[in-house]
Amino acid sequence: MSVLSSSSEVRETYEDGLARLRKEFEASGSGTAVVHGRSQLVDQVIRRCYEHLVEQGAVPSNCVAIVALGGYGRRALFPHSDVDLLFLFKDSREEATHKDALSRVYLDLWDLKIRASATARTVAECGRFDPENMEFTVSTLDSRFLLGDTELFERVRTKTLPGLLRKSGGTLLTSVAESARSRHHKFANTIYHLEPNVKEGPGGVRDYNLACWLALVSYFRRAQSWPENGSLFEPRLQSELDSAVEFLFSLRSFLHYRNGRDDNLLSWEAQDAAAANGIGVRRQAMDTAQWMRSYFRHARLVAGVAIQLLEELPPRKASFKTTLGRWRARKSNGDLSIVAGAIVLPKGYPTSEYPSLLNVFVRMARQELRLGIDAQRAITQAIPQLDASKAAQSLWPYLRRILISRHAADALRAMRDCGLLDALIPEFKLIDALVIRDFFHRYTVDEHSFLTIETLHALRAATAEWKKRFAEILGELERPELLFLSLLLHDVGKAIEGEDHVTASLTSAREVLTRLGLPPEEGETVEFLIQNHLEMSAVMRRDVFEAKVVGALAERVGTPEMLKMLTLLTYGDISSVNPEAMTEWKAENLWHVYVATSNFLNRHVDEERVHGTLDRQSLTRFGTLPSLLMRDLEGFIDGLPQRYLRTYGSEQVLKHLELASRLWQQPVQVVLAPHRNLYELTVVTRDKPFLFAALAGALSAWGMEIVKANAFSNSKGTVIDCFYFKDRFRTLDLNPSEHERIKKDISEVVRGDRSLEHLIRARSGFKSMHRARVKIETKVTIDDESSAHSTLLEVIAQDRPGLLYRMAEVLAELKCNIEIALIDTEGEMALDVFYLTLNGGKLPQALQDSVREALQEKLNGTNQ
Amino acid sequence: MSMTKVEAIIQPSKLEPVKEALLEIGVEGMTILEVRGHGRQKGHTEIYRGREYTVDLLPKIKLELVLADEMVDRAVQTIVSVTRTGRIGDGKIFLSRIDDAIRIRNDERGVTAL
């Protein structure tokens, strides 16, 4: 039987008190007032109960200390929070004698609908750390004396707990940290959920408590005493935390009132209601998206402090590697220091200058680091004084380095947290912490975008077969930065109402691209990817085994490089919608679309040729040309495959035109230029037998390793051959004079002024040992179906010096004309596709057989 | 009244049209599974970079519906009419008897629980 069941007075006082608190909350919106007020009301109830028990003689007045624990101990009882109590006894005899009588206090609380749980312990028991029940020890850190024997409580506070911390403080910290990390992990380690949990989620109330415990225990372990004034953080941080906490307290109180129970999920409906009621923002009604931003701002601070304190914990066992890592990190960089995995800015670090500011984030992207709280504050404060327009021109080189580095997403998140990303890319501000409501997405738009980037970088470490395939094509991209930039910007239009988000994102992205000063071709690639970012998902919903579906996609993407980027973009986009969105089943489908389209692209190049006039899209690329030049251009590109126009930018096409127009003066036009880490050799000349073999042969005679090549010809028989090669012996790198000599040799060989055999003999010094690391079997496939005009020859072989020359020589000897050549190398594997004709038509069957046999023989015979 | 379980293995590309068509005849509840398998259709081979890339288990969608018997014929006809292309690999439909159904929320049983 409970003590107070007859006393309606206590019930009335408590219930009136609750009603008053709710009314006050509706007027003031102060969460702190609610949680303090309810704690006080519960204090009163317990006091009355206990007094009754003593008056009735059920228990002697000094047999126990009643102690408030956990949230109740902190005076932070939300409207529907549980109440945790400790009955503290001198010894187990006292406990056995009085425990049952006292449990009536606890029953009374239940009668008042207060969900209470009570624990009985002796003083000595409080000093034992039980790893299985570390929650108890943690809750005693927040203990508050309520009633009874003060001395018992003081003993625990000044002797028992300090003893426990001295003995098991390290273990306690480790288990607290482990449980916090696993809690964060449940929420995917991000605060940016569309429907956040304001208690358990990162940046929620529990993270604030965590920060306080960690700070308290660390303080105690250092000072061997409890802090004097109660404040655990330095004054500036404390005041920032205070306002974050007030926001969270108001919000959680609001949710409890609204839901009528301890439900802390900030659902979409609750977001609208909280924004309309100005919860946490002085009752000023607000637009929901705006209000959510203030929520995220506060949550970000709380999560940031909690994580920083977690990271600063000494590791349980410092391994040699981490010790070395720390030591190195500290030594290696003079201006930025790293403390416990966090970047710390030294005094006077030039945060007002963009290069040094951006370098912080380049560093973060390359190494797994956090931005320390102080560094974050310093940068946040520096940003309003910066002139963002100044940064625009120099931003891309830094942003590029950030995007392609392993920890790009973390660096970008830190830039967003400081407000730097918004300052540099104002278009991003619209999706900063933006909640878009649909049933698939789980994260805010900005977080989703960062996750796409993170997902792709994480592919490199993937072990599952179905992921490794995607990692492989990621490694092959020529300009991965363009893919990552597209991912960063692909959803920036989501905040713009009215338009579909793809168009809106494209419009915003165009402005960003112009400001970043990307070369037009690179900008076009990014625009294409954003514009088509839903295309492959759409194809996956169609019949992916249908050639028409694949053909249409192939036509849209145009080149293998673009296909790779779009495939990866789709992979990243789907994977980042929610943790379950990318299944092996979907990945398999996507991969199939990729493979089928990739094959289609290489097997149908000569189907679409340019005839006479340019289509509208190509026209706009050359839009500003004088009409005379335009006519020349149209004549030049007549009969070239569309792939030619997609492979080369407008500048390169015009350059080729210029070379072609000089053919009457000099029949072999040769241009040599560096191209990324390779050299690019362009040869424009009249088509003739042995041409391709002569070029490939001359390059290998010079010791050059051909990595890629394209050969195209127009209807007038002008050939545009481009070779991309590695200068294996650094001949060209170290001897500028050799540039002219190699060009001269090539011209002479093509014109027939010098024999290739002679050149090869003269330069035989370049023959070197080439050791293959992986063995690749030669595969020769002849396909007479795919193209209407030519016979396709696909050769997969172990890459080695002179390979292309050997193949081209075989083809030339058999009188095959190479209409188109697509030469590619992936690691040790050469992947070559030739479109062959004989007298303008497909190869007769007998010739096909001879080609196959001759190639097999030649390539296998020379396999080293 | 008794119930029948309809399991339909269909081409992924037919999922949306089937869902819409079923909705039109009043079938609202269904379970959709991403499955892989093959019947006599066997696999599909592509060569990618010289390696044979075989999809021996083709991606399919499995729909599961439990219906009151009187609905079954219409539902089956609907699924067939939307998914049939006449080519190998269109899929299959399996029917089986269901003894009882229980709505977890309120213990309703039988056809009303569907």
Question: Could you walk me through the main structural features you see in this protein, from its secondary elements to its overall organization?
Answer:
The complex is a heterodimer of chains A (864) and B (114). Chain A is α+β, with helices and mostly antiparallel strands and 864 residues long. Chain A is built from 37 helices and 15 strands. Chain A folds into four domains: 159 residues, 2-Layer Sandwich (Beta Polymerase, domain 2), CATH 3.30.460; 130 residues, Four Helix Bundle (Hemerythrin (Met), subunit A) (Up-down Bundle), CATH 1.20.120.330; 159 residues; 246 residues, no CATH class. The longest helix of chain A is centred in the N-terminal third of the chain and has 37 residues. Chain B is an alpha+beta fold and 114 residues long. Chain B has one domain: Alpha-Beta Plaits, CATH 3.30.70.120. In chain B, 22% of the residues lie in helices and 39% in strands. Chain B contains two helices and six strands. In chain B, the strands form two sheets. Chain B has a four-stranded antiparallel β-sheet with strand order 2-5-1-6, with helices on one face. In chain B, strands 3-4 form a two-stranded antiparallel sheet. Chain B starts with a strand and ends in a 16-residue tail after the last strand. The mean pLDDT of chain B is 86. The interface between A and B is medium-sized, with 24 and 18 residues.
Q: What oligomeric state do the depicted chains represent?
A: heterodimer
Separation of the first and last Cα atoms of chain A: 94 Å
Strand content of chain B: 35-45%
Radius of gyration of chain B (CA) equals 17 Å
**N- to C-terminal distance of chain B:** 12 Å
Q: Compute the number of helices of chain B.
A: 2
Residue-averaged pLDDT of chain B: 86
Largest sheet of chain A: 8 strands, antiparallel
Low-pLDDT segments of chain A: 317-333
The tally of beta strands of chain B, per DSSP, is 6
Overall spatial form of chain A: elongated
CATH topology term of chain B: Alpha-Beta Plaits
Strand order of the largest sheet of chain A: 8-9-11-10-14-15-13-12
Q: Tell me what portion of residues of chain A adopts beta-strand conformation.
A: 5-15%
What's the structural domain tally of chain B? 1
